Amino acid sequence: MKRHISKELLQAERLAKQMESEELVTPLRLLLVLIISVVLVTAVSFSAANKSDYLLSASDETINLTSVPYIYDYTKAEKTREENMEFYNHPLDQWSIEKRSGLSLDEFWDIYDGKWPVIITDVVDKWPAINWTKRFFQQNYADEKVMVKAVVNSKPAAVAVDMDTFISELDSSGPNGWTYLEDELFIVTRPELKKDIGPN
Ligand SMILES: *[C@@H]1O[C@H](CO)[C@@H](O)[C@H](O)[C@H]1NC(C)=O
Ligand SMILES: *[C@@H]1O[C@H](CO)[C@@H](O)[C@H](O)[C@H]1NC(C)=O
């Protein structure tokens, strides 16, 4: 018996076949994805293994500074400095540490950064805590106790003393004895000081 298929049915059948071939998860695609995954995983683990190999063997390539001494070319550095100082219209002084203010970033990079010592006097001049001098603490906190770490006759000690006592001892340190303040709560428990150093 001849199968009688209407035109519409044929069309639907064709459409279904087409959709089947366009299905996302076909066995072939699944295989392809599997192969790619395996290749990727192998590649990643291979490169990781290689990296650790490199790390392990890095010690072989460590530069031995004793056999290859670091040489600072002072004459060259001095010449560069001369040129830079002239460029920035700044008098050349080879024998003192300069005190500078209003230094531009470019000038700092060119003349000082890793090249020459400098004291920059106006980095924090707008920071309220710039006013925290010995006098300031003596005037405002003389009788308050602070935690002080001390080395007395080369032996460590920790004591609580008046701020005034701590400050008066500051200048009398020596190789066998000195004091330093280590009071983590002093500032945080005093809002008027805390606001001077800012939120961080
Ligand atoms: C570095 O080199 C010096 C001089 O060649 C040598 O004496 C020294 O053993 C080396 N150090 C290392 C850690 O290889
Ligand atoms: C430091 O104290 C002086 C004198 O009281 C004041 O004029 C100045 O503004 C203070 N500086 C800062 C950064 O708060």
Notes on the protein architecture:
By secondary structure, the chain is an alpha+beta fold. Among the domains are: 73-122, no CATH class; 130-200, no CATH class. Helix content is 48%, strand content 13%. It has 8 helices and 5 strands. The chain has a 3-stranded antiparallel beta sheet. A two-stranded parallel ribbon has the order 1-2. Bound molecules: 2-acetamido-2-deoxy-beta-D-glucopyranose (2 copies). One of its GO terms (molecular function) is cis-regulatory region sequence-specific DNA binding. One of its GO terms (cellular component) is nucleus.
Which structural traits does this protein have?
200 residues, alpha+beta, two-stranded parallel sheet, 13% strand, binds 2-acetamido-2-deoxy-beta-D-glucopyranose
SSE inventory with pairings:
Elements: H1 7-21, H2 27-57, H3 74-87, E1 98-100, H4 105-112, E2 118-120, H5 134-141, E3 145-152, E4 155-162, H6 163-169, E5 178-181, H7 184-188, H8 191-197
Parallel strand pairs: 1-2
Antiparallel strand pairs: 3-4, 3-5
